[in-house]
Amino acid sequence: MSTQLTIIKIGGNVIDNPDALKRFLTAFAGLPGDKILIHGGGKVATQVAEKLGVQTTMVDGRRITDRPMLDVVTMVYGGLVNKQLVAQLQALGVNAIGLTGADAGTVLARKRPVKEIDYGFVGDVVEVDSGQILYFLRQGLTPVYAPLTYDEAGNILNTNADTMASTIAVDMAGRATVSLVYCFEKKGVLANPDDDDSVIGQLSPELYAEHKAAGTINKGMIPKLDNAFNALDKGVSRVVICHADEVAAAVTGAGAGTTLRLPTPA
Ligand SMILES: Nc1ncnc2c1ncn2[C@@H]1O[C@H](COP(=O)(O)OP(=O)(O)O)[C@@H](O)[C@H]1O
Ligand SMILES: CC(=O)N[C@@H](CCC(=O)OP(=O)(O)O)C(=O)O
């Protein structure tokens, strides 16, 4: 494989919008070189759970995953969403292979220990088999990961898709120059959540802390940015957060969205 690898994470609001998803997948198919897609799908899981009478509870951006909810997310992420994405990518000429972390033993996790909160079957990533993922890439395949992992006891576990993307990117960074792009439905990290054009071009940890304290960066953006800064800190070359329509520009470095910066040296 080439030494450049692009890892893209696509969020649940885009997955839930067929037109936006089609545009994104078409752009993804056109990206040059080796690539990996990691998808969320939280919104679809919540909708399906409701239809099945399973109640959704989120704490700090993580889904409380009891046994009935585990069945829902396994069906939705590992089945419905993953296979629809793979089929659409195949039609666009991408030889996609749909995976969970359990497949080929690529993303091993541990059930999150119960402290104040019992998250149930939520997995914290322990180990990524980047050699195996590299093998898929060398076969000309494009891995498409669902946000599911497994543990040594044989459980399938629910893992936040932003975390899945960041941990895979960090491990692959030992084998390639990795760019990680988080795509969602806004133009980037916004300085004012009510103004869709107030994109922060470059975000340092210091500026992030200021916006977090002021409450202008909140909710799902906090775990996303924690994961994104963690990736940059641990060897991923470039991390960008952008609109799904701007994925191609983000990959070429054309200035789309928000680019993360390491701390300013003292
Ligand atoms: N400053 C901010 N800029 C952009 N989005 C923000 C900001 N603060 C909070 N958010 C929220 O974070 C959400 C993205 O997080 P999340 O829903 O977890 O995304 P994803 O669907 O990609 O997993 C946005 O939809 C937005 O509502
Ligand atoms: C443990 C946990 O919270 N897992 C997430 C996995 C899906 C996800 O992250 O989807 P988005 O990227 O669309 O938010 C969940 O079930 O919501």
Automatic annotation (TrEMBL):
It catalyses: N-acetyl-L-glutamate + ATP = N-acetyl-L-glutamyl 5-phosphate + ADP. The keyword tRNA-binding does not apply. Its EC number is 2.7.2.8. Pathway: Amino-acid biosynthesis; L-arginine biosynthesis; N(2)-acetyl-L-ornithine from L-glutamate: step 2/4. SUPFAM superfamilies: Carbamate kinase-like. Transmembrane segments: none annotated. GO terms for cellular component: cytoplasm. It is found in: Cytoplasm. Substrate binds at residues 41-42, 63, 158. The record marks 9, 224 as: Transition state stabilizer. The keyword Ribosomal protein does not apply. Pfam families: AA_kinase. Keywords: Amino-acid biosynthesis, Arginine biosynthesis, ATP-binding, Cytoplasm, Kinase, Nucleotide-binding, Transferase. GO terms for biological process: L-arginine biosynthetic process via ornithine. Residues 5-242 form the Aspartate/glutamate/uridylate kinase domain. GO terms for molecular function: acetylglutamate kinase activity; ATP binding. HAMAP family: ArgB. Belongs to the acetylglutamate kinase family. ArgB subfamily. NCBIfam families: argB (TIGR00761). Catalyzes the ATP-dependent phosphorylation of N-acetyl-L-glutamate. This is Acetylglutamate kinase.
